Amino acid sequence: MTIADDPIVTERPTEPPRSVKYIVLIVGAVLLSIPFGILDINSAARGAVYGIIAYGLLLLLGVASRPTERSGLIDLSALVVAGAVGLKLYIIPIAARTTVITWRLSLRASVGWLLFGLVVGWVVYRNRKGTNPSAIILIGLAFAGAAFLALQAGTDVGYLESISNRAIKRGEFQNIEQVFHVWVGLIALGIGLAVATSFALGNAVVISLTVSAVFTMLAFNKIDFSVFEMISRSTQVSLLVEKLWPPDFTWSKSIGQPETFVLWEPFVETLRIAVVGATTGVILAVPLAFSASRMTTPNATVYWFAKSTMNLIRTIPDLFWGILFAAAVGFGSPFPGALAMIMFSVAIMGKLLSETIDAIDPGPLEAARSTGASHWQMVKSAAFPQVVPHYVAYALYIFELNVRASVILGFIGAGGIGRLLDERRNFFQWDQVMAIVLVIFVTVILIESVSIWVRRRIV
Amino acid sequence: MIEFKNASVVYPNGFKALEGVSLTIEDGEFVVVVGLSGAGKSTLLRAINGFVPVVEGSCNVNGQEVVGAKPAELRALRSDVGMIFQTFNLVNRSTVMNNVLMGRLAAVPRWKSMFGVWPAEDKELALRALERVGIVEKAYVRATNLSGGQQQRVGIARALAQEPKVILADEPVASLDPVTSHIVMRDLKKINEDLGITTLINLHFLDLARQYGQRLVGLRDGKLVYDGNINDVDDAIFRQIYGRAITPDDMLQDA
User: Fold this and answer.
1) Which chain A residues are closer than 8 Å to B101 by Cβ?
2) Which domain holds residue A117?
3) Which of A78, A132, A207, A335 could make an SS bond with A312 (beta carbons 3.0 to 4.6 A apart)?
4) Partner B, chain A 347-366, Cβ-Cβ below 8 Å
5) Which residues of chain A carry a pLDDT beneath 70?
């Protein structure tokens, strides 16, 4: 006898309608199909071929690093590929323009920081089951070495030079080298003192705060951040503000044409790019995220595959994706922009969602497994419901980000309102630039408030 | 029939959780497993559905050997073995119905379950399972809105929906108050009597074991130290299982 033979004694409750679910699905499908129909798909073929070749190379690298299960090597291999692409397309032309000496110096600095990263990574890896004091000393030593190399290499020469020149003018030093040595000495001393104090206190929080403070200081230094410069240049800024106001919303498309509101078309194009990018990316990220979480991955190979794919996509910035796709499928059309936004969305959603999945309650997964469910049945019935509200919230947030990010895509010839913005800026039509900025501002605020409202209702 | 033959379980960290256990449980038996925490009670239950691997000896469930079973064989075996957990392990955000339907996953076509399209007979089976534990009116309520006792009964319904031959209950009342503990134990006992489902329950309250159990299995440090009728168990045998005298903490009523 089983429960199937039980008599019905209680009245059955009525099942609530599922229409809401279907409406959401249909609306999603329609939203997805409209922009796809408008965007040019034909030129995708060439881009796809390039993508496959690039990915094949990555796979080869990944297979070579397969023996270890840690994702460190995977990250490294993704980094190497992305780095190689970046090197060829970005760094080398710049290096060709600058002197060989600067090139060598910054290389030495990078090697210093890379060594530091490797030592820290190795120490953390070796000590993942509890720390020992010598590990911390090793990190400290590596840090000091890297800092020295970087400073010596003078990646921040520009900033130091400007201050040093003033000191020389005041007659405090005879030449630049002298000042430079003092600077290096002072900074090294400061770092040494800070690190030594934190280690003496022996508190993990203090140590990490100190180290990150030092890094932040160095970063400020290296981006030539200067409060004095900001104040001394403020007159130029106020001049710019005068030119920006009042905004000019209507102008003629070309000479001889009547003045009209010309923002509408590129504006809609930007929104289309954002919709395509967010919807497609957010959907593509789902299987990737579930495969890239230890909680729900079917096996080590899939985990590695998903993780390395995600890392590769994330390593390459969205603008760079735009450049790559524009080169592959042609400048000027919104298609490369949409492709870049898909990558951008997959990267963010993959990361956010897989980390959310890492933190779900494993109990229901065990329960599903105990019923004899298959792996993906378990994921669907026990893991997915736990992350749905987060997923929806992330998707809306990613749409917001997409609208903002797709604006800038026009700057690199990947379509949308950004192209117009760039063009007007090049003509020094600041009042028209202001009009575009205002339109973007209002749109972003509107979309943001709607998405906050929806998110609050769902979560 | 569940048959352990000289079965040992060693965890990856080298801990020997079960050592040379030989035990035969006939169909329809109601067995209570007692022992201190860490004695191997959970391991014994989880060896039956292959959640922990038996490294030595054998474990045979309804004619299927667990040791060395292929993934598909293991899934088939698990679909016949329902499990009930101390922490209920419900998907809190899902409805009670969807939680119970989880018990039908192995029986329905995969694509249907992936899209949440459940055959009418499976839905009816889930409702019957809920009827068994008396909370059918809560079918479309979210699991998180139920009390602890009701949640555990959803857990039982989920196991029942599998139409299992065996039910494994791992400390099913440890997170419940005395009154609901008795309700859940009565439900489990009644299911065992009505449907003849072989039931293994881990308990740490001795009075509950005495009140509802027939056969008592005692574990100590991963070894089987007692196996017999619960009515024959006296203080000396408890001391043998627990390694100490009985304290009020071992009783539900006084705890």
Assistant:
1) 381
2) 98-232
3) A78
4) 361, 363-364, 366
5) 1, 16-168, 170-239, 252-261, 458-459
